[in-house]
Design a protein that fits this description.
homodimer, 92 residues, alpha+beta, Arc Repressor Mutant, subunit A, three-stranded antiparallel sheet, 5 helices, elongated, DNA-binding
DNA sequence: ATAACATATAGATAATTGTCAATAGATAAA
DNA sequence: TTTATCTATTGACAATTATCTATATGTTAT
């Protein structure tokens, strides 16, 4: 197992603002500007978090004109669940 | 949802050494000194990581004389899985 | 072309975290 | 009761990360 890669995935969930972002995305795809409205951070900070979330595979971005729409990646989420389950399963 | 508490849980999985520790515990309960043998960190550093792992609920410690035996908490792991699933489920 | 807007990047800084050396506490053995 | 052993705590430091301001890039509308 690649510990570095696994750590990268779960970095998505170890910051409060990123958890808030993921929660906002549960109700469907959202534009960065919409997310920005609801978080007390500046636009570059949001951008930074979105990069980490995308790198983790949990979130994907879709560019449309000047906007970027972000959403939860079902595949990424599924993979994270699989990792977590595997990692915490006691083999007897 | 309490984002701070959720972040605390997933802190367990966002450091390479902690992931290695969890992996070692998959094969069953292990003493701190045994874990220490296989990680390139000092004893206080291990102790620090064990605290974070226990605080996350993923790992529990059992004191027996001078030794502390650590193991994966099935309840903690289950709860983390539940959180992760909930957090990444798109409600439509 | 220019202006307005959305997002990303660069660079700086503050906060957090991972690490170590030194030491304390607790237990077992002599 | 001293000594040895295992783990936790403290304090310092280095590395990483979250944040900001300023600026660049890319897109649409005028």
């Amino acid at each position: 197992m690649d510990e570095r890669k696994t750590a990268l995935i779960f970095k998505a969930f170890c910051d409060e603002n990123r958890i808030r972002i993921i929660e906002m995305l549960r109700s469907g795809e959202k534009c960065a500007c919409k997310l920005l409205e609801e978080l007390n951070v500046t636009q570059p900070t949001l951008s930074h978090h979105m990069k980490i979330l995308c790198d983790s595979g949990i979130v994907t971005g879709r560019k449309e004109g000047k906007w970027t729409h972000y959403s939860i990646s079902p595949e990424g989420a599924e993979y994270a669940c699989k990792c977590l389950k595997e990692l915490t399963t006691i083999d007897s």
